Amino acid sequence: MDYRRYSRLTIAFHIWGVLKFFFFAFLYLFIFNREADWIGYGRIIAAILLILSIIFVIFKWLTTTYKIDEVAFYLSEGFFTKHKRTIPFSKIQNVSRHTTFLHKLIGKTSLKFETGMSGDGGTIKFEVVSKEEADHLEDWVEKSSRKVNVSAHEEEKVEEYIEDRKLHFAASKKDILKASMTSLSFLLLIPALVSLFFMINDFINVEKEAEGAIHFILSAWWLTTLVVIFLIVASTIFGMIKTYIKYGNYRIYSDDDRIYISRGVLDEVRFSISKEKVQAVEITQTLMKRILRIAEVKLTSAGQTGGGDSSMETSSLFPFLPQKDAFRLISEILPDYEVAEEMHKLPKNALFARLLKPSWIWIIATALLYYFQPNVFNLHIPWWLLSLILLILIVLLRVLDYYNSRYVLNGRFIQLKTGSLATALFLTRRDKVIEIEMNRGPLEKILGIAKITTINRAQPVRHTHMYGVPESFRLAFYQWYKKRGSEIELKQ
Amino acid sequence: MDIDLPIPKQRLSKSSIKAMLMSELIGNAIWLPILAILFYVDARFDWWDWVGWVLWVVLGLTILSMIYALTIQPYLLYKNFRYEVDEEFLQIKQGVFIEKYELVPMTKIQSVATNQGPIQRRYGLYGLSVETMSSTHTIPMLSKEIAMQLRNTIAYYAKIKEVDE
């Protein structure tokens, strides 16, 4: 196969992006401010920039090409300096699809293959492809990369491989409703209204009229109540719609090798990762979610799941799972992961150590409070009281952290739970831990405790700490990691 | 006690104590004149009061750290630094007050290099730096023979990679 260009529609998408970028500038230059003197120059400059951007987009499309064979992607780009890259399929960590509303209108989608390398060079992105082509590409990469790894004996099995996806979770209306409550998304209406107000105010002076309206509303109590009720209802509905658009159609599938997560109503996002490439699993709960017994399960991947857009959250299994379903879902989706429900508490000494450790935040804050003696909200609170309040808060958080902390070694797995208000339970397999570290200072030595750290592949590399485990566990942790050698698969 | 971690066997080169002393001497020989100049400039140009206080505190700390650094610190650093390399792992234990024990699988090592600064050269020592996906681990002062041998050993073991990379 020869090098070929991306779909012609890519140009249209890029031009659309450029137009969006210039939209407000043009609104400002051509619709409002018609009288200003400098407007002529401004218009000319804006027009030149626009034309240059469009030319750039076209040239970029003309000079960017790709090639695919059985083992790798080959990318070539650049007009003056040619830049070629080879990305073998075996390096690909996860695949994501983002179907925006625009994509939907023309029945296409965008496809992204992410590797563990950081920076732009790490991803291969097809901005506009048809659904069939995307399926084909994904299948091609999946099958080819498996052929490289499996022995000839298993190859037949690959051929027989039938698409057999099992649905593990589909968000119900109740889940979405709960999600919109927990995420407090109904509060989003207020900032949205405020920013809308200021944006309009920039062009037309609404402030004066608004003032009159507010006076009118406040003049009768029944009118005030009505408006308040209306605002509450409107913001709740707004929050629900927003949550529905983002998390509606949330589905988690898996087959023998891969996990698929898709979500979204207008913008559809689909994420898939090979089970072997899951580096760790994490269950996180914010304070609100803990109260409502909801949890979020995240899959840690070495690929870049960030990248500025909303895809960050795609590696998360549904963020609003009922707590009891979280464990079930993990063991269903990743059958070789074992979740231990029973975990050890930290020894009492770990609490002492947490309380005895100096808090730099408190020391610095106290020094600053003493020096500036600020008058907070005009309440005349003395500086030492503020410092005391801060100290109590810090102690409280540390005590909570002590009570929430749990740890356990369970066969090949390690489970660490930490956090004071929001908690996170981290679960990973021995062969996915790329390094470990154990620390202790004089205080910890006296108290017979230590800090242990696991380091995992992620973007960026992830360090997970557990402070205050007993020394006997430190040794167990060391011996546990030493047995790693028997489990890893080595390259020839 | 049986709940303590096993201590890695290898140590730094004995002459690392002398090298560390020398580097501390040089460091202080550069820093003290700078401090003296600051004192002079402070008096000459009548800077704010607090600058004087800060300078005195810095001087106090410098003297304290100098006493420590030029007497027992090099010995303690030497005594507490241990490493061990085998087929599967690189182990490093270090730290005088805060003890740090690292365990790095050979398969996860991406590169290994020896390096030598001017002071190390004076004593015929080499530093070894081992890079992994998450950080760089250094074994600072080894004799030439051991450093080269260790570099080759690590490079040999680290050639083997795991499937998922």
UniProtKB/TrEMBL annotation, chain A:
**Transcription: present as a keyword of the record?**
no
Membrane spanning residue stretches:
12-32, 38-59, 176-200, 220-241, 351-371, 383-403
- Looking at the keywords, is Membrane present? yes
Query: Keyword set for this entry?
Result: Membrane, Transmembrane, Transmembrane helix
Quote the InterPro entries the UniProt record gives.
UCP026631, YdbS-like_PH
- Boundaries of every YdbS-like PH domain copy: 61-141, 250-330, 402-461
Protein name per UniProt: PH domain-containing protein
Source organism: Cytobacillus stercorigallinarum
Automatic annotation (TrEMBL), chain B:
Give the UniProt keywords, A-Z. Answer: Membrane, Transmembrane, Transmembrane helix
Q: Which PANTHER family match?
A: UPF0699 TRANSMEMBRANE PROTEIN YDBS, UPF0699 TRANSMEMBRANE PROTEIN YDBT
Key word DNA repair present:
no
Pfam families in alphabetical order: bPH_2
What does the organism's lineage look like at the top?
Bacteria, Bacillati, Bacillota, Bacilli, Bacillales
Instruction: Tell me where the transmembrane regions lie.
Output: 21-41, 53-72
Superkingdom as given in the UniProt entry: Bacteria
Q: Specify the species.
A: Cytobacillus stercorigallinarum
What is the name listed in the Swiss-Prot or TrEMBL entry for this protein?
PH domain-containing protein
Task: Specify the YdbS-like PH domain's residue ranges.
Answer: 78-154
